[in-house]
Amino acid sequence: MVDWRRNLAALWLAEFTAILGFSFAFPFLPLFLHRELHIPNGSQLAFWTGVSAGITGFALALTGPIWGRLADRYGRKPMLVRAMVGGGISVGLMGLAQSALQLTVLRGIQGASSGTVAAATALVATETPAEHLAWGLGILNSAISLGSAAGPAAGGLAANLVGLRAIFLGGGVLLLLAMVPVLLAVRESPRRVSRAVTPPTLQVLRAARPGTIKALIVLMVAQALLQTSYGAAQQLVVLRFVQLMPNARDAQSITGVTFAAAGIATALAAVTFSRLLRRSSYRAVITTAATLLGVTLLLTAAGRTPAVIIVTFVLSSFVSGTMIPAFGTMVGLEVPPVVQATIFGFSSSAVSIGFGFGPLIGGLIASAAGAQAGLIVAAALALILAAVVGFAAREPQPIIERDNA
Question: Distance between alpha carbon 240 and the CA centroid of its chain, in Å?
């Protein structure tokens, strides 16, 4: 028998280290373009920020289902190791980029070759007992959130000491180190790894609970909306700091502090969200959180000082953090184990589409009308998300009913 708790502990450490590597440099992308690649502040910086940040999501969206299908055939663990190697090499090479175009190409390679979150989520979902799934995915997401919190803080400190280019190399090294707990401690059930051929995915879904395909489509649209809204806000907040703080070093430091606080808020939400489910439902939790996300992003847009922007963005991160593991749990409870990695691959693609469109839309709007206008659009997308979940999503089947079905 596989010890799912040991797996979860090892995957927590691995994902914390991997996301630490990704977020070590990612929040400083606009600053890297501005200071190292000499893109002038204004519409050009907003444009290249959106394009270089968005290409990663689009590339991952194309490859996510492929990696998911391979994981169902050959195992989730090999796909997680592959993602960490691909991410480590591509992130490290970004420090050598000499132009915005080179950086954008490397960001695309990163997206196509990585995908650690989807692989780790599939491992947790298939090896964790159903009654512990919401808690397990919340714990995994806390590692992602804490990595996102520690990365910018450490990256900001490192950037001040050794420069922006060096932090990309550091991020690549951290991603490669993340493989160690996976290789040493993570185990998969033999029945999952030994299966040479998996049944057609649509055939399995049609044989499951009636309406499963429609329910999954709604969830993936909602995941894309969430990531589009929050992903746009992340880069727009940095642009606001650049506008409000002409001193690049000050903007660099405040960016690290802001993303660190946002990551901690997201981690707290991920760990505690399962308690809300004891008193409420998945739909109620997500609909309420999406509405609050829209409100807090509107307040961020209205902010005139760095302090106001930091507080409202951290609150946005907290409510966003309740939705990420909730969506993952809903997907896991809708899907039979035999095709879970494939579906999580498609789910990852939906998130990645948002990860691509968010910075791109935010960057284009900011280049045309300013960062505040982009934040207003991000808030509107969050309110649309609340409507989609409130009116079109369904509650996942209770665990006892699902296991007896």
Answer: 22
Q: Are 353 and 60 in contact (CB under 8 A)?
A: no
Cα dihedral sign for 260, 262, 263, 269?
positive
Q: Got the DSSP string for 199-220?
A: --HHHHHHHSSTTHHHHHHHHH
| 155 φ, ψ (degrees, to nearest 5) | -65, -40
Predicted TM-score (pTM) of the model is 0.70
pLDDT in tens, 101-114: 999 999 999 888 88
Which token pair is 112? 């196509």
Using alpha carbons, select from 107, 111, 97, 112 the residue that is nearest to residue 32.
97
Per CATH, which fold does 4-185+203-404 belong to?
Growth Hormone; Chain: A; (1.20.1250)
pLDDT at residue 208 in the model: 72
3-state SS, 324-393, equals HHHHHHHHHHHCCHHHHHHHHHHHHHHHHHHHHHHHHHHHHHHHHHCHHHHHHHHHHHHHHHHHHHHHHC
At residue 198 the predicted structure's pLDDT band, cuts being 50, 70 and 90, is: low
Rounded CA gap, 134 and 397, in Å? Answer: 13
Give the integer Cα–Cα distance in Å for 339 and 70.
Answer: 11
Find the helix packing angle between 282-302 and 248-277, rounded to 10°: 160
In 24-42, which ranges are continuous DSSP H helix?
A: 29-35
Q: What backbone torsions phi and psi does residue 304 show, to the nearest 5 degrees?
A: -110, -5
Are the C-beta atoms of 226 and 279 separated by less than 8 Å? Answer: no
pLDDT of 396? 80
Average pLDDT over residues 114-142: 80
Q: Where does 75-99 have alpha helices with state H?
A: 76-94
Pairwise CA distance, residues 326 & 314, whole Å? 19
Mean pLDDT of the chain: 82
